[in-house]
Amino acid sequence: DIQMTQSPASLSASLEEIVTITCQASQDIGNWLAWYQQKPGKSPQLLIYDATSLADGVPSRFSGSRSGTQYSLKISRLQVEDIGSYYCQQAHSNPPTFGSGTKLEIK
Amino acid sequence: EVQLVESGGGLVQPKGSLKLSCAASGFDFNSYGMSWVRQAPGKGLDLVADISSKSYNYATYYADSVKDRFTISRDDSQSMVYLQMDNLKTEDTALYYCTVDEGTDYFDYWGQGVMVTVSS
Asked: Which of these, A98, A73, A64, A99, lies nearest to A20 by C-alpha position?
């Protein structure tokens, strides 16, 4: 199975700050990567797919990028409603696998 | 609007059984793969099982940790997907989410989740 190494495990940032979360794939997965947001007490929601494409209704302050087998999720100006956990997931090879998650808090 | 509503969770003793159900609506259920993803308390996300559409012969996948104990099935006539869980272990304690892959290979929509607690 493809391993997705996500970092950091937790992150505390100030409002309006730029936040970056990364995932490292254990092998080439092309652009077959998604990011999910899970707000406290809620179900995960698809945030970004195909590494860089925003899902419907996702604010433009979220963006995804890729450099080789490293993928990044960037929040350009952190808002209160962005608090929660974020997970990456590869869809290149079965079974799909998730990163271990990043818990984002307000400083 | 896509809706996935899980039911059937609860408290069960080790080695017991439980059957989860997921009622789907708001999309062409027959055409897409369905999955169960679980989240142990305070932990991350793990794919438990998935089942493809009829077009792909209802192919199934199971995580190694549940193989030979869990069975995923679907009823296209009722837009339902099920997860039969047998010989449950304490490590199966988790919130179980029903999800749909609308042909994107991602988990496009998620239900609200149903809690399964395995404890004596």
From this structure: A73
Phi/psi of residue A13, nearest 5 degrees: -140, 160
State the Cα torsion A9-B96-B81-B71 to the nearest 10°. Answer: 100
What residues of chain B have any CB closer than 8 angstroms to a CB in chain A?
A: 44-47, 61, 63, 97, 104-113
With CA atoms as reference, the chain A residue closest to B113 would be: A43
Measured between alpha carbons, how far is B10 from B115 in angstroms, rounded to an integer?
6
Backbone angles phi, psi at B56, to 5 degrees: -110, 25
- Residues A11, A14, A15, A17, Cα dihedral to 10°: -80
Tens of pLDDT, residue by residue over A47-82, are 999 999 999 999 999 999 999 999 999 999 999 999
CB contact under 8 A, A99 and B104: no
Structural tokens at position B104: 């994107």
The pLDDT value given to residue B103: 78
Per-residue burial over B81-119, b = 16 or more CB atoms within 10 Å of its CB, e = otherwise: bbbebeebeeebbbbbbbbbbeebbbbbbbbebbebbbe
- Give the phi and the psi of residue B30 in degrees, each rounded to 5: -60, -20
What percent helix, strand, coil does chain B show, rounded to 5? Answer: 10, 50, 45
pLDDT digits (tens, 9 = 90+) for B48-105: 999 999 999 999 999 999 999 999 999 999 999 999 999 999 999 999 999 998 877 8
